[in-house]
Amino acid sequence: MRQTLFRLTRSLRITRVLVRYRLDEVLYFLPILRPYRTFLRLNPMTWIAPRPAGGFPERLRQALEALGPTFIKLGQMLSTRRDLLPDDITLELAKLQDAVPPFPAAEARRIIENSLGRPLKEIFSEFEEEAAAAASIAQVHFARLKDGRAAAVKVRRPHLERVIEQDLAILGFFADLAERYSQEGRRLRVRAVVAEYAKTIRGELDLLREAANASQLRRNFLAEPELLYVPEVYWDYCSPQVMVMERIYGIPIGQRDALAKAGIDFDQLSRRAAEIFFRQVFRDAYFHADMHPGNIFIDPNNGRFIAVDFGIMGSLDDASQHYLAENMVAFFRRDYRRVAEAHVEAGWVPPDTNVQDFEAAIRAIAEPVFERPLNEISVANLLLRLFQTTRAFHMQTQPQLLLLQKTLVNVEGIARDFNPKLNIWEVATPLLSDWLNRQRGPRGWWMELKRYFPQWGLALPELPVLLHGILRQTQQGELPLVIRNQDLEGIRQELQRGLRRLVLGVGGTFLLVGIGVMAAVDHELDTLIAGLPFWLWLIGLPLVLWGGMTWLQRFLSEN
């Protein structure tokens, strides 16, 4: 009862914010909610409240900020979905700020002590009361461990999980209504979008998962400290509500004047940004998916990148990684046929897609772009336009590719900001070519052999038993062959009719020939062949052949 009351109260607050920003119209595309419009129009607050300034995109951003963490994060995710929303809306949503006032330090202390099960003074020799940064999910305090190591302590906001779960339940309810009562809702796959978002924000709530993400990314770049540095996680002081890691000292990447004063080479910086991205995607298949300027710092001593905030990470399976590389290489070779075929082979578009039409649509996207110099070509925008076009060919939503496109937009923006003439493709080509060669050549075969050999070693002793079981089932007729394809069913019926005619024709011919031979050589019918008289061979062979073909016809008919 209490939970239902809380959800009802929260729904009323959401409605009130939508009305305040004149966004209640977004609800009325659902026929089931249209009567609600009359009720709202009878509310005096609808007439008295001042009309907010700005167009629909701006009012939407303001409403999401007013609704709190769940909706701020939702707006940030939707800002990357240009395959679903118009550009003016996604550009405005990209301005959503995740900065909110910090909660009291005393509350942060209480959460740390309850979560880690010991007093704060037993963990830290120093703890800064003022939060260094505050966002909708958590805030950060600087501290010093008892052993002298400088640390950054990330603390999740109190009572946040209950509010987010209630908001997700409300969003899920409206998503169900949208797909049930709206054709546009079904086309946009609203439930899948909400489910994808719920998975992302629940992952951000668990700071243990974020700590694991940081450790994995740090391990991936340990051999290349000149490119990217990831702070160390102090696992003894981590929990789902608290994460303690190494404190980093760097210049925010947005502070160009400070970077120039530190003597940072901007051209090198832009190249490193692109190289870090492509190494994450095509070497590790695991990438930081929230690389906006607020999460990136530059080490003033050597110009390397320093990353923070690992709540959102992206990963690619082998197939997505392979076909993404194929697509990018084929794009820049203007081999649009290969791009279309790669989409079909990857299962991103239906297998019955007309490849010629798909190729023509891709050519219409790419050719105007390639008329520009290579350093002016935006790989991120090229992928975006491809995703928008493939929607007409019923391409299924690929969450990992959408995260990738969002990250590429951020990285490309950073790289071009420091060197507008940077040719992203020039940086990517050697990495892509090396990766494809390693996947296709002898080295790739050897790596796959080493990867799967332990599994083969475990399965090998079982093969004789499995093979014996299959042969026994075959011998006893217990291994059915079931064909459900309608086209193959027609072929089988035609084959049965052909076999029937063949049985009658061949069997009848053998009998007639046998009788003729017997009539012509009746005085030699007692001649023995392999211990049997000649006349028995003449009669027996046609009968055996006929019987065998009849059995084959019956077997095919029954199966």
TrEMBL record:
GO biological processes: ubiquinone biosynthetic process
Transmembrane residue ranges: 502-521, 533-552
Signal sequence interval, chain numbering: none
Keyword Hydrolase applies: no
Any one Gene Ontology molecular-function term assigned to this protein's record: kinase activity
Domain called ABC1 atypical kinase-like: residue spans: 95-342
Associated pathway: Cofactor biosynthesis; ubiquinone biosynthesis [regulation]
Cited SUPFAM superfamilies: Protein kinase-like (PK-like)
UniProt keywords, alphabetically: ATP-binding, Cell inner membrane, Cell membrane, Kinase, Membrane, Nucleotide-binding, Transferase, Transmembrane, Transmembrane helix, Ubiquinone, Ubiquinone biosynthesis
Pfam name, any one: ABC1
Xref: CDD domains: UbiB
InterPro entries: ABC1_dom (IPR004147), Kinase-like_dom_sf (IPR011009), UbiB (IPR010232), UbiB_bact (IPR045308), UbiB_kinase (IPR050154)
Family: Belongs to the protein kinase superfamily. ADCK protein kinase family.
Stated name of the protein: Ubiquinone biosynthesis regulatory protein kinase UbiB
Organism: Acidithiobacillus sulfuriphilus
